[in-house]
Design goal:
It is a single chain. Helices cover about 30% and strands about 20% of the residues. By secondary structure, the protein is α/β, with parallel strands linked by helices. The strands form 3 sheets. Strands 1, 2, 5, 6, 7, 9, 10, 11, 12, 14, 16 and 17 form a 12-stranded mixed beta sheet that branches. Helix 7 packs across helix 12. About 55% of the residues are buried. The model has no long low-confidence stretch (mean pLDDT about 95).
């Protein structure tokens, strides 16, 4: 629980890269129109006599601050991270800030699997041709090292692995770093988890990733909270959020998006992927208590909603138990797909863009809801105000996280 002397934390900058759009303007436009990019994935290393469905980011082209010689030795995950961090950096007007007082927390682990697999395949039988950069890229801190070197970040940098809760866990750790005074500004990133066909097949085999039911209609495959869901559909993504203390500087052209008013994280003491009702309820109640909010104060919920057969049901049970059926609710993953390590951060960006637009984005493929007692947003919905929201992310291994965001208006 925060003490009376705890500083208020604000979000002062956003960056996002996703299949539906690169940059917050393109991403937001696609989000509010319900535009998708689901198809059979084509990126090299994604298929081996398979037809896995997903949403892939279009070619990035030129990346600011990244020299051509460095571009050739960086992975796709790293390139997306740099592009996304660059947008958030400019948005928060951090040029000229003291790098010794800026931190970076990267959410995700095993981030570059596809590129590592491709390197192993290329050099099989000719090991001497393996690039020296391979020895660095096997560590997730490679993303930290690249980003800190390009942007001059010298305060702190580390990665946090929370499976599909990694992006939101990065926000929590960044908030704690600012709140404790370790840094003045901390950037939370949900990094792109670059899957190879090995990971896709593993998720499919365990029943987590959507099956071949919609192989001929990829646009119908991603359907969180719908009775016809059969697992998550992958969607490439990355998001970065700049957190700092309220009042640290006077706004100029820069204006903060919202206050990060509360957060909570707990474990189920469970290695398996199955969800825990008690764990999810505890995370929700913990975030509300931290923020000093009652359930009735929450006007909007951005749920985890992965499309899991068991997970979606459990999540709605948790929201019922926490007396949150009244709040408007939609599914960002129904449009973007499930970004796994990036998802929690991408969905916080989606929430803040809805705050800014005073509108809620639609949910795709929610034809036969498994929760008719909830206020589902099926089409774009204008709202007069969005005072307080609740964001939820859960990860394999019993990880539960929740965030409360509050308007500054």
């Amino acid at each position: 629980m925060p003490s009376s002397s705890s500083p208020e934390l604000i979000v002062s900058g956003l960056g996002v890269t996703a299949a539906i759009g690169r940059g917050k303007q393109a991403f937001g436009a696609a989000l509010f129109s319900g535009e998708h990019r689901f198809a059979v994935m084509q990126r090299p290393g994604r298929q081996q006599d398979t037809q896995f469905i997903g949403a892939e980011i279009e070619p990035l082209g030129q990346i600011d601050r990244l020299p051509e010689n460095l571009l050739r030795s960086t992975s796709f995950t790293a390139q997306v991270a740099l592009a996304t961090l660059g947008e958030a950096w400019v948005d928060a007007e951090l040029d000229g800030a003291d790098g010794r007082k800026i931190g970076l927390v990267v959410g995700g682990s095993n981030l570059q699997q596809r590129e590592l697999m491709l390197a192993q395949t290329r050099c099989a039988g000719q090991l001497q041709y393996l690039r020296p950069s391979y020895g660095v890229s096997v560590f997730d801190t490679d993303i930290c090292g690249l980003c800190t070197s390009v942007f001059g970040i010298q305060g702190l940098a580390f990665t946090v692995g929370g499976a599909s809760a990694s992006g939101q866990l990065a926000v929590i750790e960044a908030a704690e770093a600012v709140r404790s005074g370790r840094v003045d500004v901390c950037i939370a990133m949900g990094a792109l988890m670059d899957l190879s066909y090995w990971e896709c097949q593993g998720f499919r085999a365990m029943g987590a990733m959507g099956s071949t039911r919609y192989a001929q209609a990829p646009d119908l495959a991603c359907r969180p909270f719908d009775a016809e869901r059969d697992g998550f559909i992958f969607g490439e993504g990355c998001a970065a959020l700049v957190l700092e203390r309220a009042g640290r500087r006077k706004p100029g052209r820069w204006r903060p998006y919202a206050k990060l008013s509360g957060w909570s994280m707990n474990m189920d003491a469970n290695r398996n992927p199955d969800p825990s009702l008690a764990g999810e309820v505890a995370a929700i109640q913990g975030a509300l208590a931290f923020a000093g909010l009652a359930p009735a104060d929450i006007g909007y919920i951005n749920p985890h909603g992965s499309g899991s057969l068991v997970g979606d049901v459990t999540e709605l049970q948790a929201l019922r138990q926490c007396n949150l059926r009244h709040a408007a609710i939609n599914s960002t993953k129904s449009i973007t797909g499930h970004g796994l390590t990036a998802a929690g951060a991408v969905e916080v960006v989606a929430t803040l863009l809805q705050f800014e637009a005073r509108a809620l984005h639609p949910s795709r493929n929610l034809v036969n809801s498994i929760g008719d007692d909830f206020d589902w947003v099926l089409e774009r919905r204008p709202v007069a105000t969005l005072n307080h929201s609740l964001n939820l992310s859960y990860g394999f291994g019993g990880i539960n996280t929740a965030l409360c965001l509050s308007s500054l208006n």
